[in-house]
Design a protein that fits this description.
Blueprint lengths: L5 H8 L10 E4 L4 H14 L3 E5 L19 H15 L5 E8 L5 H5 L4 H17 L4 E4 L14 H21 L6 E4 L11 H17 L7 E3 L6 E2 L2 E2 L5 H13 L3 E4 L7 H10 L3 E4 L1 H23 L9 H12 L15 H5 L2 H11 L7 H16 L4 H19 L5 H7 L1
Parallel strand pairs: 1-2, 1-10, 2-3, 3-4, 4-5, 5-6, 6-9, 9-10
Antiparallel strand pairs: 7-8
């Protein structure tokens, strides 16, 4: 039996009532350790896993690959398959492109590439996704460097979206590849709400254009319900009424409401998501921060063991992680109050800010040679005292993911889907 497509999953979930309702979780693939933690938990709790990779995280070598393990699409797919076999996960997992399309790599946007060139690169990246078995492509042509401080025109967004889906479908059919699913739309980066009337207008106009060309409808349409992640916390406020209205509109057109920036949401807010009809939500930086904090906790344990004479030569992970995180510059997007303009030298003079930036952007450095070497040294030192460092990191990641699994009623969802 072939794997259920995400289109089929959404169609089934839109029929669920009462206790069967659930909200799927899109998980940023921040490291191979995280993937191992998630697939092990997915096996235990029987829920479908969506790994959502941005172009900066995973992309073709000709674009510079990704900061996560230097993965291109092929190595990303192979790594997940390898881990699934290692932990005995035989359920549903999906490779998802998060924010694919033009200008979605930092360099393309910073270089202010013209539209035709940026669109061509976005298409080429999608082709690599397609050829390497991605199940869901997020079509997002809205990170236009020529549109600053305002929302991109709806008709321009739709034109580009249809052009990109048309390209992917043409290439897919040409190669005889199986059907894939699509996600469209994007969140507001200022935390503002998506107005129901604009959301419905966008859906109506997009579906009409897709129908004209005989193209498939999307499985998910992104709507902003008030979520906004800054530093290591949720600074937005989820509007329950907006969730309910947007999900009802999406369902009317046979698609699922997708929520982005769901990191650090509290239990009460998460618990109401299935009831309000939110079909899926993305969480990424939170899990990277959780893994970073786990390493920092292990470093503290290592220091104590050194003090007891049980470890002779401690690792330098604390120092290296701080240096690499600050120098990466990737923390800038999460900062507030103009702190994104600070230089590394200025940051290192502020101990509290250095620590904060390490927690925010440590995960961007996990594959840096210096960091990898020191993590290995840390694990080796702890193992002498009978401490399994990797097992602890996996435990901390799983605890963070399980918060959403339980609140979103995901436990047993794979079995429920297969019975439908």
């Amino acid at each position: 039996m072939s794997k259920m497509t995400l289109r089929e999953v959404v169609d089934t979930m839109l029929t669920y009532e009462g206790g069967e309702k659930a909200t799927m979780l899109g998980i940023g693939p921040m490291s191979k350790t995280l993937i191992k933690a998630v697939l092990s938990l997915g096996k235990e709790k029987d829920f479908p896993v969506m790994f959502i990779a941005s172009r900066n995280q995973v992309d073709a070598d000709e674009f510079g690959s990704g900061y996560v393990c230097h993965w291109d699409q092929a190595r990303f797919a192979a790594a997940i398959k390898e881990v699934a076999e290692e932990v005995g996960f035989d359920g549903l997992y999906y490779l998802c492109r998060d924010h694919g399309g033009p200008w979605q790599r930092d360099k393309e946007r910073n270089d202010h590439l013209p539209e035709d060139e940026a669109m061509a690169l976005g298409k080429k990246s999608y082709l690599y996704d397609l050829l390497n078995g991605f199940d869901l492509l997020h079509i997002d042509p809205t990170k236009d460097p020529y549109v600053v401080g305002k929302t991109i025109d709806m008709d321009v967004n739709i034109r580009r979206t249809v052009e990109l889906i048309d390209y992917v479908e043409t290439e897919r059919k040409k190669r005889g590849l199986p059907a894939i699913s699509y996600e469209v739309g994007t969140e507001e980066t200022n935390g503002g709400l998506t107005l129901p009337e604009n959301y419905e207008k966008f859906i109506q106009k997009l579906l009409a254009k897709l129908d004209e060309k005989g193209l498939p409808h999307p499985s998910f349409i992104v709507g902003n319900t008030g979520t906004l992640t800054r530093l290591t916390e949720q600074v937005g406020h989820v509007d329950s009424t907006s969730c309910k209205e947007l999900s009802a509109i999406a369902k009317k057109y046979g698609v699922g409401l997708k929520e982005h920036n769901g990191d650090y949401l509290d239990d009460a807010t998460c618990l109401e998501h299935p009831a309000l009809g939110v079909t899926a939500m993305n969480v990424a930086p939170e899990f990277g921060t959780v893994e970073t904090l786990a390493y920092l906790q292990l470093i503290e344990t290592e220091k104590r063991l050194v003090g007891q004479g049980l470890i002779e030569e401690p690792s330098k992970l604390g120092t290296v992680l701080r240096e690499e995180a600050v120098k990466s510059g990737r923390w800038k997007k999460w900062m507030v109050n103009g702190q994104d303009k600070l230089t590394p030298e200025e940051i290192f003079k502020d101990e509290k800010l250095t620590q904060q930036i390490t927690e925010i952007s440590g995960h961007y450095t996990f594959n840096n040679p210096r960091v990898k070497e020191e993590i290995a040294r840390l694990y080796k030192n702890l193992a002498v005292s009978g401490i399994d460092g990797e097992k602890f990191v996996i435990y901390k990641i799983q605890a963070a993911v399980d918060h959403y699994v339980e609140c979103f009623n995901l436990k047993g969802l794979t079995s429920r889907l297969k019975k439908a």
